Amino acid sequence: MQEDLFKRLVSHSKEYGFIYPSSEVYDGLGGVYDYGPMGAELKNNIKEYWWKAMVQVHENIVGLDSAIFMHPKIWKASGHVDAFNDPLIDNKDSKKRYRADVLIEAEIDKLEAKIEKEVEKARKKFDNFDEAMFRSTNARVLDWANRAEAIAKRLANGLKDNNLADIKALIEELEIADPDSGSRNWTDVRQFNLMFNTQMSNIAGEDGKLYLRPETAQGIFVNFLNVQKTTRQKVPFGIAQIGKAFRNEIVARQFIFRMREFEQMEMQYFIRPGSEMEWYAYWKEKRMAWHRAVTPAAKLRFKDHDNLAFYANAAVDIQFEFPFGFKELEGIHSRTDHDLGSHQDMSGKKMQYFDPELNESYVPYVVETSVGLDRMFLSILSNSLVEETVPDAQGEDSTRTVLRIPPALSPIKCAVLPIVRNKEDLVEKARGVFDQLKFQFTCQYDEKDAIGRRYRRQDAIGTPYCVTIDFDSLENDTVTIRERDSMQQVRVPISEVAGIVRQKTEMHRLLEQIG
Ligand code: ATP
Description:
Elements: H1 2-15, E1 19-21, E2 33-35, H2 37-56, E3 61-64, H3 72-77, H4 80-83, E4 85-90, E5 97-99, H5 100-125, H6 131-137, H7 139-160, H8 164-173, E6 190-193, E7 197-199, E8 209-211, H9 217-222, H10 224-231, E9 237-246, E10 261-271, H11 276-292, E11 300-304, E12 314-322, E13 325-334, H12 338-347, E14 353-355, E15 360-362, E16 365-372, H13 373-384, E17 385-391, E18 397-403, E19 414-418, H14 424-437, E20 443-445, H15 451-461, E21 465-469, H16 471-476, E22 478-483, E23 489-493, H17 494-505, H18 507-514
Parallel strand pairs: 3-9, 19-20, 19-21
Antiparallel strand pairs: 1-2, 4-5, 4-6, 7-8, 9-10, 10-16, 11-12, 12-13, 13-16, 14-15, 17-18, 21-22, 22-23
Helix pairs in contact: 2-13, 5-7, 5-8, 7-8
The structure holds adenosine-5'-triphosphate (ATP).
């Protein structure tokens, strides 16, 4: 069923101009996608929602748009040259390449799925079911949970200590087979650096080697003092940025969940050392509220990191229940003074802030929030795509595909439809309504096909309102306005249409909800 939803999502995205595979006429390019006309609108709306919630609402958060190319030493200082690796493994028979940690995590997922199934079975069997008690006493559940924990721990240690031989041993002990071919004929595990590189034309050799940034955060760190001085912000303050990032992912599957070129929305919050846990808790809650304003709470959860980076003292993911399970959507990390400290050491330039209240200088600590724009896009789409049975004009059952996108994020806010197209005065009236509304909202004018089909087309791209101009409109300047989710139609004066659309689609309602 979920697999089915995922397939529908991919084909719906293409059919309605949300997402196309990149370079499709040349059979595509793995892990790279293009956003079509509807996709570009939805993406811009998600960006706007994030930017406003961060920069507009917080007096002490400012924006930045740093370049993708940066001095190569930045990636040495940040640790990416030496340690931005994934452990890869090849299957000798199928010649397929996998991430060793992902193969092992899939085994953990299987055990967790078994536990959930057992819990559901018991829930159905017993009245007054005590779930916590069942989880802590049922022998099978306990056994699976212990096994999952032991595997996760061994994997985390293997990654931390770079003990690739033990990761391979774990794959063998768990008898993990190639998911495609079933073969267990594996190579050794080795590390693979995920950064793409290119060459600057005027500098030969290693010195001219540039990296396409694998995250936007470093552009913020190296500009920290520029921004602080030019905006005269006082700690605590934040810098927010939206931009492209590039990772040479070993396996780029699952559509736009794991891409080789993607976009991040990151915010670094600069704070006094020692205050990080307070700010970490604050941003965890704030970011979850941002998600909950557009996504049902049951589809979101926190997941603490099993494997903390050596410099981080707290890290959590906000996971979303994608059609292929709960997976990371956003990361919130307390990164101490690791990045600024490393740039200070590598560049020899002070990365310090003078705190007038304490009368001392220090390298600020950082709490960062980092959400993938494309993953956010996928979460909105997978949450919105619904197929339902509704009565047609004759009262017969028919199916409609509707994207229940939160109206503030919908690509098109309002469609203007003359009931028929062969009546000049009706068309002229409808054009007039469209020409008024287009200055305020993204609108579509559509006169082709029967009205029912036009409604369905708008449902399929998530348009919250359809305004229909009919013969009565010519007499009394009223129109019908149809709401996407309820499909209810009401007759209103043309002069009220803009107000109705605005009421439901304006971004500020979402922002107020977060507080
Ligand atoms: P994962 O464990 O899934 O590879 P990550 O922990 O490496 O992700 P971060 O480095 O924390 O990810 O990046 C922050 C955010 O950027 C992620 O939460 C995710 O939303 C997004 N992101 C990271 N890698 C990709 C990718 N290859 N494609 C799309 N989005 C990505």
